[in-house]
Every structure is written in structure tokens, then in C-alpha cells.
Amino acid sequence: xxxxLPLTLKVNGEEKTFLASPHASLLRVLRDNYYWDVKxxxxxxxxxxxxxxxxxxxxxxxxxxxxxxxGHEVWTDKGLGYNDEITRMIQDAFVECGSIQCxxxxxxxxxxxxxxxxxxxxxxxxxxxKAISGNLCRCTGYNKIVDAIYxxxxxxxxxxx
Amino acid sequence: xxxxxxATEFDYLKPATLEEAxxxxxxxxxxxxxxxxxxxxxxxxxxxxxxxxxMDIKGIDALDYAKLDDKGVFHIGALAKLxxxxxxxxxxxxxxxxxxxxxxxxxxSVRNMATMAGNFCNASPVADSVVPSICYNAxxxxxxxxxxxxVPVEKFFLAPGVTVMEKDEMLVDIALPQPEAxxxxxxxxxxxxxxxxxKISVGARVIRDGEKACFCRIAMGAIAxxxxxxxxxxxxxxxxxxxxxxxxEVAAHASASIRPIDDNRTTAEYRVAIAEVLTKDALxxxxxxxGGEL
Lengths: 161, 294
Description:
CATH superfamily of the largest domain in chain A: [2Fe-2S]-binding domain
Distance between the termini of chain B: 54 Å
Helix content of chain B: 25-40%
Structural class of chain B: alpha+beta
Strand content of chain A: 15-25%
Shape of chain A: elongated
Strand content of chain B: 15-25%
Number of strands of chain A: 5
Number of domains of chain A: 2
Helix content of chain A: 25-40%
CATH architecture of the largest domain in chain A: Orthogonal Bundle
CATH topology of the largest domain in chain A: DNA polymerase, domain 1
Distance between the termini of chain A: 59 Å
Largest sheet of chain B: 5 strands, antiparallel
Oligomer: heterodimer
Number of helices of chain A: 6
Strand order of the largest sheet of chain A: 2-1-5-3-4
Number of helices of chain B: 11
Structural class of chain A: alpha+beta
Strand order of the largest sheet of chain B: 4-5-10-6-7
CATH class of the largest domain in chain B: Alpha Beta
Number of domains of chain B: 3
């Protein structure tokens, strides 16, 4: 039963073929193949640090089966940072606002923020808090993370008047 | 317990059509259906759920819909995702309590994967989308190779994780009837922080006939082994002039008629106490939404 099967995914813009068992989560396949910017926290869909973009939508990779994504497009924080202007802005804002303490939640937070901005997110602290409600941070108290996403939304001209 | 691996071995099946999927359900033993996976995968990791076959139905495009039919009934397919439904204009206009429930459910990254039908089939007593669906008289269609049958939503649940579905059946469609003119509804959920599972949730829908209600349906989550339709309590509200006193009386009855339990989210005592307040708030809001005055 648990034999390895070939799996083709488009990760960070590159078409890749992995060998993965049917039981493997997307998170495990990514990490086993050196995508270490995708962090592994609770592995049961609570903490959100494993968040990646699957076909443009933020999902928790620990509760997504890898073979379920065959042929689909996956972007991780690192890949987005090199290729996507908005993600780069979010990453810069995280650094400038001091939103990173231990940094473990950061990749998931940035992907959640990217999803928020991509889907018309505005500079509204309450909405931003909702958008990152699936991501836990145990250091910052969230304020500086919200600051960073707010800053990007303002830079993009999404102020609320 | 480890969350690193799925502790069960299974074969992964991916049918492309509903017929194929139903055939698999009829022929094979111990099949689990995977749609969004936000409950199934977690249960396999931490709650010891096992299966011999995991059938991924995401390839069945024909089940991914949310649309009105020519009789004005709104149909939600088994694969319609919560993040899609929460933005649906028909739901926003006709079923605002359901929209509210979607908005209060989990986090965006979970709603991007999870389906409404999955929320039903997981059969949690707290299921957020079920409570308003009870108020809206939703009808579920179960399909198998033997044919289709329909079940009203309040008859669908038997116990936590257990539904009336036979092992070869699959929930394919959730139908919401057209709401009447002069109807109003409300959904209230109590949690500690926003994306939490509810301590308790209350839904109410009323149809107004002048100063009286001619229809009322109150439903609650997390107060019994299944999401509950409070039939007796709802009947108390019908046919009398609606006043704050009547609402208080109905709310007290709701609180007295439930037998919740203590669990890790809150205590039975709190649930009984807050049920009265929430029922009062939900009925007041629903009555006002129906155009009624107090």
C-alpha cells in the first residue's frame, strides 16, 4: 500500500516531479524536498505556519494531501519573495516594522498577508486581524505584524477614507 | 500520538464522475470521502480515524456549484467551498444568517479548502453552517447506486460524527428553499477568539404576519449530541403578539429545555445561562429583520 508514487507539482513556478506516498501531506513533501521556508508547527491545521498558496489561495499544507494537488500550482513564501512584487513589499514591511521575533510564524504570516492583499485587502486593522486569524504568533502580540500589513495596504493606496 | 504522519494506510482513489464515485462506495468496504480535508485529515492524524480507501471527490467538477434553480430553490453542491459561498451574492441577499455563519467559521486558509457539505458530514454538534440551515428548512440529497433520497437537515444527524447516511451513500446537494417575504433571521456564535469553534451558537428565523409571527424556527449548536432544532420553543413564538415579554418567555423556555455538557470549551452551566441571552438577542434581531417592531 504505502508505495511511493510520482507526483508532478508546479512549485514556485517550476514544474517538479517528486516521489511521495499517498499518505504524505503537502507540507511533508515540500520539506522533504528542501523547501524549508515552509515551517512545520502543529501539523493539525491550527497554527498556520505551514500556509502556502495553492492556485492563488492560502491553504494549510499540513492538512492538504500532496497527491491531492497533482498538477496544481504551489507558491511558498520564499518563491513568492523572489518573484512577486507584493510579497517583496510585505517582507520588507515585516523587517521595517519589527514584525519578526523568533520568526517561526513569519512564512505563514506573509503568505496569509499576500492572500489578503491579493483579494482586495484594505488598510483596516480589524480586517487584517481577521485575515491572519488562522496564523498563531507567540512572540509579537500581533501588533507589529498588523502594522506591517497595514503599511503595505497604505503603500498600495488602499486607505480607508 | 504524532501529527507528522497519517497513522493509517489507505489506497487513494480519485473518481472523475459521480457515477464512478458511487460505484466505489457500493463495491468497496471502509471508504472515506475526502473533499476539503480540513476535518478528515486532522481526524486521521489525531483522533485515530482509519480507512482502507480514501476517495478524493475533488475531481468531480459537476459537484462544484452554487446556483438557483427555476423554482427559486438555491442549491449548493458537495464541493462548493466556504470561501466561495461566503461571497455568493444570492446567499448574502437571501440567507444572511448563513453568510454570517460562514464569516465566523475558522480562518481564511481553512475556508479556502473546506466545503459546506463536509461541515455537515463531519456531523459535529457545533457545526456552524448547520445551525442556520436548520432555520432555513434545508433539504439534503443523498445519492447512491440505488438512487437518490432527500432528508430534512434536522433529521440528518444521529450522534457526534454519525448521520443517517448509509455506507454507500454520499451527500451531493444542499437545497435551501426560497425565503418568504416578511421573513427575518439571525445567527449568533459565542467564542473566545474569532476563529474558534463555538462555545454555543444560536440561529433564528421568523416570518412576520402583522404583529404576530406565523412561523419560527430556532436552532442551537453545542447544546446536545447533534445540532438541535428547538421545536417546542419555536412553537411558543408562533401566533402571539410579539413583545419583549414574549421574547423573554421563549428565551427562558429555550434555556430550560436544553441539557448541554461540560467540555474543554466551556461548562454546561455557562451554556444554559448564555442560551437564554442569545436566544433573546437572536429572536429580537430576526424579528427586526422581518420588519417587526418591538
